[in-house]
Design goal:
single chain, GCC-box Binding Domain, elongated, 6 helices, three-stranded antiparallel beta sheet, about 260 residues, about 25% helix, alpha+beta
Length: about 260
């Protein structure tokens, strides 16, 4: 039974009482969260109603304050529902050609509309500077959706064209190095692809004219490491542009540093 507008009493398994806030808008029932205090739950309900009724309230830097009882995620979801007519459980706000995902009030990610329903059903989390989502019990860095390798380094392996590290629109992401263990460098004014493998420290496998040659050289170095008893699980490269026979021919012909054979 409702104690105050939008507030309902509930009990935990241990019998402890808590309060749930919710509202119905455009025939959709929206849960606003759980609270230990009925006053806080009622405040969250009132704040949500104010958002719905005040069409002048929009997403600005000062529109959400820390003293609000309504969570920031719900604040964004309700604003988007009011303005765009679709409710997402994740903090998404749709704009004309893209959408914003509010990781925090101050951290706003931009995505193309093509990714809308993926992020509508996958909550983005952050740990150690990396953004990831959980799916079927596993965690995946969101950079992987753009073909960027797990250990890629910003500025070396990929860049954001407009220097905004939170702008994940496809046109803004430029992959520099497509393969594991391959780095694009410049030597005597010309681009070269350096293949590098790591075991305690980095070993230069060789420098090559093409990215595919360096990727194959890296794979060959991995095979040599494994044949030498090194049990580290290296991720090998899959080169889409090479047919099986062409790959094997290049693999046989590619020359790598003699130092690789002596690593144990």
């Amino acid at each position: 039974m409702a104690e105050k507008a939008g507030v309902y009493t509930a009990k935990k398994k241990n019998g402890e009482v808590y309060y749930r806030a919710s509202l119905t808008y455009k025939r959709k029932h929206i849960s606003l969260g759980s609270f230990s205090d009925s006053e806080d739950a009622n405040c969250a309900y009132i704040e949500a109603r104010q958002i719905i009724n005040d069409d002048k309230k929009s997403i600005t830097k000062d529109s959400y304050t820390k003293d609000m009882k309504l969570s920031h995620d719900k604040f964004i979801s309700i604003l988007n529902f009011r303005d765009n007519g679709i409710y997402f459980a994740t903090p998404i706000y749709i704009l004309k050609n893209y959408f914003e995902y509010y990781l925090t009030p101050d951290t706003i990610l931009k995505f193309d509309r093509d990714d809308l329903f993926f992020y509508a059903s996958h909550k983005i989390q952050q740990r150690g500077g990396y953004l990831f989502i959980s799916d079927y019990g596993s965690q995946y860095k969101i950079l992987g959706r753009y073909g960027i390798k797990p250990f890629a380094v910003y500025g070396r392996d990929f860049i954001m064209v407009n220097d905004d590290k939170y702008d994940y629109r496809y046109s803004n992401i430029k992959v520099i190095n497509n393969y594991t263990g391959v780095q694009l460098e410049e030597k005597n004014g010309k681009p070269v692809y350096t293949a590098i493998i790591h075991k305690v420290s980095n070993y230069i496998i060789g420098r090559y004219e093409t990215e595919e040659q360096a990727a194959v050289a890296y794979n060959k170095a991995v095979d040599i490491f494994h044949s030498n008893g090194i049990k580290k699980n290296y991720a090998k490269n899959y080169i889409v542009s090479l047919k099986k026979d062409d790959y094997l021919k290049l693999y046989d012909e590619i020359i790598i540093s003699d130092k690789i054979n002596s690593v144990r």
